[in-house]
């Protein structure tokens, strides 16, 4: 299991936390973004890692989109061990039949069907009335429910849909057999307060709301995807749709690793937990980044290469005394081997001394001062100071002392 984090909040016992399901859509919404395409084998490998990591539902693809997508979803379904396998379908009979066929070999199959509900989409994209869309919801959800027990329905562009109509659409979907109701922030437009309030209102006003699990699905156009996802959980959602490294349409989706660690580290104010083995986060992040040739930004939370790196002298000094001074979780809790103290012009004596020790040098005070002065001069000229640079300057220092 995961090792304890460094969290400072009073920890909430695991038993008093509510379970939130993790629905990973790296292979569908993630793979859908420009430049993130994966091969069949890569998709199988990523799906296996997600299953092992404890993802509850893997959205394996959009079976009607291509023969390749259909094959990948079918094979992932056949090989699935613990996770539910979902296939996406528009509110079109042919899509739903194809998704049903693709997931049918899974131990736990799910059809995820969606239709737009916002006036903007109804007028400009679908060219349908609200009543027509209600009829489509009833018909297509019922069709999916005839194929599988587990049906998710999404109200695309829910956050730009008037609440009265959204409630009618949700009620119709549940009546037709939907077991999960997803209210996506499709265009990343909502703020956390609005998103939390939307879930509260829908769950209060829809008479059959207790028959379904509510789900969040947030896009990151304003950089609010993770904050909104957490707000949605506070509003009563118990499933989070997210992707590894936050890949996805446009600015991406909520990042799985950020949602999982926010809930874990801040369990004192967010009494929810997931079934994710967080020690596998880094490995999975690297695998996804490698598979879709999509780099992870250096300062990305949790899995960026700087997430556990410290360069400033003050921070390095604190870290050498106690890691909780500048880290709120242990690197090991997310699968990172160790904290790194990056040697650069901001580093101080304490970090330099510790680095020398780690490299096997035991210098006297004068030699140490001399080496430190040379190191600072070098760091001013050079962006990155590597171990080899330090080795060279110390050896040079020692050689001149013997002359
Ligand atoms: O962002 C969105 O609305 C979607 C739906 C298909 C759930 O990805
Ligand atoms: Zn989406």
UniProtKB/TrEMBL annotation:
Residues 20-282 form the Pyruvate carboxyltransferase domain. It is an enzyme of class 2 (transferase). It catalyses: 3-methyl-2-oxobutanoate + acetyl-CoA + H2O = (2S)-2-isopropylmalate + CoA + H(+). Pathway: Amino-acid biosynthesis; L-leucine biosynthesis; L-leucine from 3-methyl-2-oxobutanoate: step 1/4. Its EC number is 2.3.3.13. Its cofactor is Mn(2+). Keywords: Acyltransferase, Amino-acid biosynthesis, Branched-chain amino acid biosynthesis, Cytoplasm, Leucine biosynthesis, Manganese, Metal-binding, Transferase. GO terms for molecular function: 2-isopropylmalate synthase activity. Belongs to the alpha-IPM synthase/homocitrate synthase family. LeuA type 1 subfamily. Catalyzes the condensation of the acetyl group of acetyl-CoA with 3-methyl-2-oxobutanoate (2-ketoisovalerate) to form 3-carboxy-3-hydroxy-4-methylpentanoate (2-isopropylmalate). This is 2-isopropylmalate synthase. It comes from Bosea massiliensis. The lineage of its organism: Bacteria, Pseudomonadati, Pseudomonadota, Alphaproteobacteria, Hyphomicrobiales. The chain holds residues 1 to 403 of 527 of the full protein.
């Amino acid at each position: 299991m995961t090792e304890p984090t460094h969290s400072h909040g009073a920890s909430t016992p695991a038993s008093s936390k509510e379970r939130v399901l993790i629905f990973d859509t790296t292979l569908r919404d993630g793979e859908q973004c420009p430049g993130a395409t994966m091969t069949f084998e890569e998709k199988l490998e990523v799906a296996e890692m997600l299953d092992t990591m404890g993802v509850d539902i893997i959205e394996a693809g959009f079976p009607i989109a291509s023969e390749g997508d259909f094959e990948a979803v079918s094979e992932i379904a056949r090989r699935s061990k613990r996770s539910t396998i979902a296939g996406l379908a528009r509110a079109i009979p042919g899509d739903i039949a194809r998704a049903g066929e693709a997931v049918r070999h899974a131990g736990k199959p799910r059809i995820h069907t969606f239709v737009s509900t916002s006036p903007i989409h109804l007028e400009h994209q679908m060219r349908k009335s609200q009543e027509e869309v209600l009829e489509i919801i009833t018909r297509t959800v019922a069709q999916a429910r005839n194929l599988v027990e587990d049906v998710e329905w999404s109200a695309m562009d829910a956050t730009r849909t008037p609440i009265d109509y959204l409630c009618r659409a949700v009620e119709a979907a549940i009546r037709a057999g939907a077991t999960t109701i997803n209210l996506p922030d499709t265009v990343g437009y909502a703020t956390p307060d609005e998103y939390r309030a939307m879930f509260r209102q829908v769950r209060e006003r829809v008479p059959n709301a207790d028959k379904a699990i509510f789900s969040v699905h947030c896009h990151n156009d304003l950089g609010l995807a993770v904050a909104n996802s957490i707000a949605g959980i506070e509003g009563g959602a118990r499933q989070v749709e997210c992707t590894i490294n936050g890949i996805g349409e446009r600015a991406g989706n909520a990042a799985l690793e950020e949602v999982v660690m926010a809930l874990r580290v801040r369990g004192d104010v967010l009494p929810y937990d997931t079934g994710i083995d967080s020690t596998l986060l880094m490995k999975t992040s690297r695998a996804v980044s490698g598979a879709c040739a999509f780099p992870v930004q250096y300062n990305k939370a949790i899995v960026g290469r700087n997430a556990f790196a410290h360069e400033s002298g003050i921070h390095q000094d604190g870290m050498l005394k106690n890691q909780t001074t500048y880290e709120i979780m242990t690197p090991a809790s997310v699968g990172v081997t160790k904290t790194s103290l990056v040697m650069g012009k901001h580093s101080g004596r304490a970090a330099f001394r510790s680095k020398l020790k780690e490299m096997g040098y035991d210098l006297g005070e004068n030699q140490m001062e001399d080496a430190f002065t040379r190191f600072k001069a070098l760091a001013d000229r050079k962006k990155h100071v590597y171990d080899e640079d330090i080795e060279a300057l110390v050896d040079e220092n020692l050689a001149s002392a013997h002359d």
